[in-house]
Amino acid sequence: MNSIIDTILNHRSIRKFTEQPLIAEHLDMIIDAARSSSTSSYLMAYTMIGVTDPEKKAALASISNQPYIKDNGHFVLFCGDYHRHMLKANEQEKVTMAYNVQSTEYFMIATVDATIAAQNMTVAAESLGIGACYIGSIKRDLDLVSDLFDLPEHVVPLFGLALGYPDEQQEIKPKLPKEAVYFENTYKDDVAHKAALEQFDKTIETYYRTRTTNKREDSWTKQMVKTLHNQRNDRLTPFVKEKKFNTR
Ligand SMILES: Cc1cc2nc3c(=O)[nH]c(=O)nc-3n(C[C@H](O)[C@H](O)[C@H](O)COP(=O)(O)O)c2cc1C
């Protein structure tokens, strides 16, 4: 064990922060950690927008009833971004580039690049004693997010990261065991796979029954049936296409 692995294994999302803004040195360090990430074809196809304006934070928070979107030490919006790549290209080059970045491949690259940067930021933040919570619920009103931050074509908001000094103690949430997520040389057969899930269900049932807050009776497999019965956001596909991503 070393301190990096220790930080990673101790991860838990934090949703209640003190009012203290992130100190400037901490913010710079976690931005540097994000910027240092691996990136496909050196594209660095992402942008981070720090949100400190209380009105913009309140507008973001109005999208869902998650007060930690505004009550935190800092909020960062992560976007997939090919706008900057075309800024210094000539008009003819732009036409071809703008066409090519609309492929699913370039959309996936931007999504993966942004996610790796965000996770580097999260680990760096947690190593400094800063809590973090990813915020996917901003997708519930992508038009509002786009308007709030003047996002041009080829820039699509993906998720946010609420950051701050923790004002709560959370238990670590158990994750799927190695037997359910790491296979060697071939995909696991369903019998062995199910056995691993049944074992995990027992762990998570105990966790939900005994955790300090929001106790409930549930298992992971039951929860997933419910979750994947939810229809997801109908606006997402047209929005992404309007931003000239993933159109072909
Ligand atoms: C892409 C992404 C989006 C998320 N969106 C939200 C969100 O909108 N609100 C929230 O409270 N938690 C959100 N989470 C946090 C997850 O609920 C959390 O990571 C998961 O339950 C596991 O708990 P843990 O992070 O404490 O281990 C999100 C996590 C990810 C990776």
Summarize the structure in words.
The protein has ten helices and four strands. It is globular. It is of the alpha+beta class. Strands 1-2-4-3 form a four-stranded antiparallel sheet, sandwiched between helices. Bound molecules: flavin mononucleotide (FMN).
Spell out the key features of this protein:
248 residues, alpha+beta, NADH Oxidase, 2 domains, binds flavin mononucleotide
Which structural class best describes the helix and strand composition? alpha+beta
- Order of helices and strands, N to C? HHEHEHHEHEHHHH
* CATH homologous superfamily classification of the largest domain: NADH Oxidase
Broad shape: globular
Largest sheet: 4 strands, antiparallel
Gyration radius, rounded: 20 Å
* Helical content band: 40-55%
CATH architecture of the largest domain: 3-Layer(aba) Sandwich
CATH topology of the largest domain: NADH Oxidase
Main sheet: which strands, in order across?
1-2-4-3
Unreliable residue stretches: none
Task: Give the overall pLDDT as a whole number.
Answer: 97
Terminal Cα separation, in Å? 45 Å
In total, how many beta strands? Answer: 4
- Strand fraction equals 5-15%
Hetero compounds: flavin mononucleotide
* Total helical segments: 10
| Domain tally | 2
- Name of the level-1 CATH class of the largest domain: Alpha Beta
InterPro entries: Flavin_OxRdtase_Frp, Nitroreductase, Nitroreductase-like
Domain Nitroreductase: 8-165
Protein name: FMN reductase (NADPH)
Family: Belongs to the flavin oxidoreductase frp family.
